[in-house]
Backbone:
């Protein structure tokens, strides 16, 4: 009788105990890699957002917003000096010093705008155009001031030749330089908005990936421990237990850190940057408004135009239904609340209420000023423009600065908090990844050695 031996082929490696351990360990390692890769990607994304919004483009955009303020104030100062006539020597000296200060601020803002433009040729051309236009404006304004000095006159409108020169200068400022300065701020602000929108979309996705990868890694570690316990008839290994807890903790801490950074970016952008930029624009428009008051006295032919311009700017700041300046003054003084416009959303809290009250006092002073001018009391109107109106505007401007400082503090705190949280995340990543990897190897390697 012939005995036939049948050779049974060995089980495939993946179906053997070591093979299954390797497969489960490999899946676990893949989940861990995904977890820490998502955490690293989230950290890098947040870091980029904090850097652009908090340290680079954000502060520079706010600084370039000061360009509009500086330019508009230069033109307002020239108008003030021209209506002073041969009186108000002290005020004229102060105005001249302020003109030089604003010119320096404008030059600095243009340099920052040029730096921010980077390789954007369109923005660089805009900056160059503003520089060229500013030079032309200064020549015209200088000629008007020199001719005014050589043509003494009482407070009020200067000689017609001076007015014609100033018209050329202010038209250049209002029709070319100020719109270009405003467009620069809008274009540069796009960098911040685009960065924020990108991070606001990416960070939540990465945070969700962290949670999902963490849950998968925890599930794989539990699966690995159950398989090892059943196969080797032993209790759960302490190394894998600690690794499971460490993965769970890393997932919770990492997801929380990304969530806190997302909140910090949102607060810095919405409650900080947006409000600071809006208030910077409001200051610039307001400054141009008080320049329109002097221009209203300076140029009789364009007085109605400057009055309508003043109303349009007032409506852009605090909007109410008003077809003329008299109605606007009355409705603002009524303090009915619910204002819209650029300042409307900012009039909250104690400092917001102070801005509203100061703005109402400024508009009340404007009412008195225009009454004097309409009655033909030009000298008294000039005195009112240079004293009570100027004082009311100064108080209003200081209230805007105080409110902007409050929002800037919110902005700085949010950025600092985000950077601090991010610093903790960077400390967690290498330590957690190294410890968890070591624990997994420590828990799996002894079992694989038993099959050697």
Residues:
């Amino acid at each position: 009788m012939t005995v036939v031996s049948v050779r049974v082929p060995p089980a495939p490696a993946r179906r053997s105990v070591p093979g299954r351990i390797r497969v489960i360990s490999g899946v676990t390692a893949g989940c861990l890699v995904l977890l820490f890769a998502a955490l690293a990607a989230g950290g890098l994304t947040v870091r980029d957002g904090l850097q652009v919004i908090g340290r680079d483009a954000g502060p520079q955009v706010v600084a370039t917003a000061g360009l509009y303020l500086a330019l508009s104030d230069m033109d307002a100062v020239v108008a003030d000096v021209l209506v002073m006539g041969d009186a108000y020597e002290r005020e004229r000296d102060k105005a001249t010093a302020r003109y030089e200060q604003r010119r320096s601020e404008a030059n600095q803002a243009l340099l920052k705008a040029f730096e921010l433009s980077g390789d954007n040729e369109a923005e660089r051309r805009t900056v160059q155009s503003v520089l060229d236009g500013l030079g032309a404006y200064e020549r015209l304004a200088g000629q008007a001031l020199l001719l005014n000095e050589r043509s003494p006159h009482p407070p009020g409108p200067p000689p017609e030749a001076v007015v014609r020169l100033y018209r050329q200068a202010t038209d250049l400022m209002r029709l070319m330089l100020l719109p270009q300065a405003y467009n620069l701020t809008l274009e540069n602000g796009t960098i911040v908005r685009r960065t924020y929108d990108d991070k606001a979309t990416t960070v939540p996705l990465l945070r969700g990936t962290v949670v999902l990868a963490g849950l998968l890694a925890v599930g794989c570690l539990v699966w690995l421990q159950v398989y090892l316990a059943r196969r080797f008839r032993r209790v759960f290994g302490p190394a894998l237990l600690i690794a499971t807890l460490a993965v769970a903790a890393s997932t919770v801490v990492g997801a929380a850190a990304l969530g806190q950074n997302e909140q910090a970016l949102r607060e810095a952008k919405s409650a900080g940057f947006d409000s600071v930029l809006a208030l910077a624009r409001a200051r610039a428009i307001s400054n141009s408004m008080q320049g329109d008051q002097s221009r209203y006295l300076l140029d009789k032919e364009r007085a109605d135009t400057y009055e309508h311009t003043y109303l349009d700017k007032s409506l852009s700041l605090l909007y109410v239904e008003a077809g003329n300046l008299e109605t606007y003054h009355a409705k603002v003084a009524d303090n009915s609340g619910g204002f819209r416009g650029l300042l409307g959303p900012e009039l909250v809290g104690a400092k917001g209420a102070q801005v509203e009250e100061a703005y109402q006092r400024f508009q009340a002073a404007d009412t008195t000023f225009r009454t004097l001018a309409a009655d033909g009391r030009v000298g008294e109107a000039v005195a009112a423009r240079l004293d009570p109106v100027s004082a009311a505007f100064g108080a209003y401007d200081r209230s805007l600065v105080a409110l902007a400082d409050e929002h800037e503090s919110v902005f700085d705190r949010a950025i600092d908090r985000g950077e601090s949280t991010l610093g903790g995340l960077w400390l967690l990543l290498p330590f957690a990844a190294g410890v968890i990897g070591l624990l997994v190897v420590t828990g799996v390697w002894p079992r694989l050695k038993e099959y050697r």
Q: What stands out?
A: The chain has one domain: 25-443. The chain has a mean pLDDT of 85. Residues 25-443 form one domain.
